[in-house]
């Protein structure tokens, strides 16, 4: 079976800064994977590279066996932004946002058809927001906000979902709702990749974890990833290595 | 003085009819565009581009080609220069904008001063709405119709671009192309509006209506109605005031818009300062109730 996301020897450079170094990974359909690393570890860069926003100086990325460009044209990639990247005062409703998932299928003016409206309502129902469709997006709780963007990905027909820090600013009970939703989506065959530095939701949520610090430190079962010796590597607490590099 | 002499009598003059028609056209198109500009966060960019088109307009005048062509070229030159300056030096964006638009504006001033018959061109700077000719009006109407049609046809794409360009990219659209489209519309609209208020004050018509509407509604489609209607009404009032008081028409058009904005800022039922302060307590209660609802998945 083709991997949902595959990276081979990906190196990304921003000027003098090496953001990613020889990153190779495979993420499968039907699974939830947690991408763990501290701020500046390259999580966002890896997301951008998967989406094709950043081009690697070396190596390749493929989505379901396609180049990122092809994958975008086919609408395979659904993206759930970080809360701080969204203008929550923007005058759009939940339904408007989910409809944006349909734009690639629509004509020049993006006039929605009744089929589009139906898909949007189904996506809202799937994430449990059917009664919130006409709310302005700022008038939602943290968890509902995230589910709105997941619904957009579903309306888009994306089968690879990228979530950037989905648990930031989300209370405990909303978190468990999101965990349950993502788990179900994975069980239905979606590939869910989550970047996070929030570790406590991972064991019930993720099948696998990837520890990232410019390069891949670990990819494997969550329980192994969360071992202190692995985490201390990912969060830069390894004293031996620091001494060696001096 | 009675109502007739105040409102109807000015309409006996053809120049007033032309002035009011031009103003309403410009106000509507500017107000539509402003809804996106304020949401994208392009207010400063709008200011820069609207000033930077001046040399383009002057060169177009000298060469005898449509003002819009020169404005488009210099609008893109300005944005490219700002981007290059920011990307290749340690200069931050606000400084880059400040440097580029003032330099281009200065170039425009120099070109005006060295061009014979420069009295006409001074109108570009301060506007000359009461002196609009029939051919001016035709040009404005054509540009306004084009800008209006493109804005309405591509409104959903532009809103997506304003809201979440990354998603636009993820579904295979080109945020860069949408940004360029918005920029081209900004340059075109600047040409429309500079007839009314002049280059210096164009930016007011490109920001205030959208900002006013944003304080009145949470629905973008309603913003697209409220902004043009309010802008057209206040601009017409501004022209009348200028006629009655024999004062700067461009100045009064913008002044009225500013006053309307201030009133809305204070008294808007949903997002006004007073309503917000008064409802502060109630909102707090609603939030408590709301987060209690949110506990139920």
Automatic annotation (TrEMBL), chain A:
<dbReference type="GO" id="GO:0016887">
    <property type="term" value="F:ATP hydrolysis activity"/>
</dbReference>
<dbReference type="InterPro" id="IPR003439">
    <property type="entry name" value="ABC_transporter-like_ATP-bd"/>
</dbReference>
<feature type="domain" description="ABC transporter">
    <location>
        <begin position="5"/>
        <end position="239"/>
    </location>
</feature>
<dbReference type="InterPro" id="IPR027417">
    <property type="entry name" value="P-loop_NTPase"/>
</dbReference>
<keyword id="KW-0547">Nucleotide-binding</keyword>
<keyword id="KW-0067">ATP-binding</keyword>
<dbReference type="InterPro" id="IPR050153">
    <property type="entry name" value="Metal_Ion_Import_ABC"/>
</dbReference>
<dbReference type="GO" id="GO:0005524">
    <property type="term" value="F:ATP binding"/>
</dbReference>
<dbReference type="Pfam" id="PF00005">
    <property type="entry name" value="ABC_tran"/>
</dbReference>
<dbReference type="InterPro" id="IPR003593">
    <property type="entry name" value="AAA+_ATPase"/>
</dbReference>
<keyword id="KW-0813">Transport</keyword>
<comment type="similarity">
    <text>Belongs to the ABC transporter superfamily.</text>
</comment>
<protein>
    <submittedName>
        <fullName>ABC transporter</fullName>
    </submittedName>
</protein>
